[in-house]
Design brief:
Length: 328
Amino acid sequence: MDPTIAETMLSIIIVTWNAKGYTLECLQSLFAPPLAISAEIIVVDNASSDGTPEAIRRQFPEVRLMENEKNLGFARANNIGLAASRGQYVCLVNSDVVIPPGCLESMLLHLQANPDIGVLGPKMLGPDGGVGFSVMRLPTVWNTLCCALGLHGIFPRSALLGGFMMSGYPYDAVDDVEVLTGWFWMIPRAALEKVGGLDEQFFMYGEDIDWCCRFLKAGWRVVFYPGSEALHYGAASSANAPTRFYIEMRRANLQYFRKHAGRLRTFGYRLTTWVHELARVLGYSVVYCFNQSRRPEAAFKVGQSLSCIRWLAGDNSQITPTQAEQRI
């Protein structure tokens, strides 16, 4: 890896927390075969207790490892990596991503040919070989309500009723979009210096929506690029505490509305979240009563939504880490 700023084309930043197996596989994909561009790899570890830092030092001594004393969250940890980076372009990659040969090089060429792009994201492939969800609309009260009422499932390709999740998006062409989810981004340093790093008030989730919104407001394009693709396992860290992370996602969206949408639309978002969680409790209660094979799943979903409702009602203990979740 080239140590000089002038010759370092790309800085690859990976944040990890208790995801040793995924992180090692991600790093292996970057070293075998070696990248065809000058790059540095920075791993920021959020106080993992599963031996992740030790394994990285042992197997990948070339990697620049930065160890936090506690879990600082996704946004802050990435900002630590960004501050230490030296590349002309930066790439933020989740620890549970496997990057095939040529992926980064192709993305870099596309950015160099289109200097008005601020954020570029590749096509996501799931473990089953299917195309994963990586493009969204900026959330509004209306498109959030469409998701709460399930209209996005009935009209997935509708711009009016398809919700912010864009479940019918084809993922088959280069396209200017509003949001690229935060699993894998490549960004020119020139754009980063104008927009700034991730907003650290977002502990986990929501920082991707906020960042893309800020790039768009600053006049940069946010572009989906299917010419590169990578494998994303998904939920490497959130699987450790799914109910807490379910609530964290809604809390992050509420933070986004407070920051960008004003009081009235923030109230509208809270109201649509109430509608969504109450409908979810009702729907999965029916499933529990009439579909015995799905009872465990239904009971879990009802419990998640009830916890979210208690949080909406002001019970902040629903987002306080339990003893088993202290490092999330």
